[in-house]
Amino acid sequence: PMSRQHGVETRDMWREVSRPRIDATMEVAGKATQLWLRQQVEAFEVLDQSNIPSVLIHGDISPENLLTDHRGRLCGVIDFAEARLSDPALDFAGILHRFTWRDLEVVLANYDAPVDATLLERTRIYIAISPVYSVTDGYVALGTGERIAGLRRLAARAARETRNKRVALIVPSS
């Protein structure tokens, strides 16, 4: 359950937000997507979570909230309405949602908090499952087309990962 520390919301976003949305999405998703979502849940839940830090995160990293100077260098961050104490992997997934792994590497190189052993894997899973938010919440603001788009994005991710696993089994390693 959500709590407050030092006037800031503290929340286990996996258990309290992501997991319930995954469960709700499973009710309307196709079988292949359901299987893929179960694999993402299992991959997250087998990670050692004993050392996941709870840090102050922005909660809504997006280009609209990042201010840059005339050279494109970050000079400010705005809109802290979603700030909370939680898993830093959420902000890193926010970076990946709009930017690239290379951009994330730049952020990590300048990140001054400790990086735990499973941070990047949690980040990968959070970004992989991000369309569940379109399925469960996005349609409220954008209509049922957003729910359908979210289901299609999840199905495409499931198909791509399944295809990549098949290719890995067929192509011998050198």
Blueprint (SSEs and pairs):
Elements: E1 3-5, E2 8-10, H1 13-26, H2 31-45, E3 55-57, E4 66-68, E5 74-77, E6 84-86, H3 89-98, H4 101-109, H5 119-128, H6 131-142, H7 144-170
Antiparallel strand pairs: 1-2, 3-6, 4-5
Helix pairs in contact: 1-2, 1-6, 2-5, 2-7, 3-5, 6-7
Average predicted confidence as pLDDT = 88
Instruction: Find the count of extended strands (DSSP E, 2+ residues).
Output: 6
What topology, given as strand order, has the largest sheet?
1-2
Overall spatial form: globular
**Helix content bin:** 55-70%
Structural class estimated from helices and strands: mainly alpha
How far is it from the N-terminal to the C-terminal residue, by CA? 49 Å
The unreliable regions are none
**Main sheet overview:** 2 strands, antiparallel
Q: SSE order, as H and E?
A: EEHHEEEEHHHHH
Radius of gyration: 17 Å
Output the number of helix runs. 7
Short note summarizing the structure:
By secondary structure, this protein is mainly alpha-helical.
Name the features:
single chain; about 170 residues; mainly alpha; two-stranded antiparallel ribbon; two-stranded antiparallel sheet; 7 helices; about 10% strand; globular
